[in-house]
Amino acid sequence: MSRNGLYAVIAILLIAVVGFGIYSYQQQQARPGIEVRMDDQGISIDGNG
């Protein structure tokens, strides 16, 4: 395998690892959560899931 081919394989693997990291970070941020607010109108609970 030539050096250019080896560099191409390394670049593709690096791009795949970075892409998977970004994807998993976005999935982690999109988890459902609950927001509890207390104001002058009382207590309100909002869920985004």
Give a verbal description of the structure.
The chain has one domain (3-47). The chain starts with a helix and ends with a strand. It has 1 helix and 2 strands. Helices cover 55% and strands 24% of the residues. The model has no long low-confidence stretch (mean pLDDT 88). Strands 1-2 form a two-stranded antiparallel ribbon. The chain is an alpha+beta fold.
Concise overview:
It contains one helix and two strands, in the order αββ. It is of the alpha+beta class and 49 residues long.
List the helices and strands and how they pair.
Layout: H1 3-29, E1 34-39, E2 42-47
Antiparallel strand pairs: 1-2
- Unreliable spans are none
Q: Look at the helices and sheets and give the structural class.
A: alpha+beta
Count the domains: 1
Helical residues, percent: 55-70%
Number of helical segments with 4 or more residues: 1
Largest sheet: 2 strands, antiparallel
Helix-strand string: HEE
The radius of gyration over CA amounts to 22 Å
Shape, per Cα inertia axes: rod-shaped
Number of strands: 2
Keywords: Membrane, Transmembrane, Transmembrane helix
Transmembrane segments: 6-25
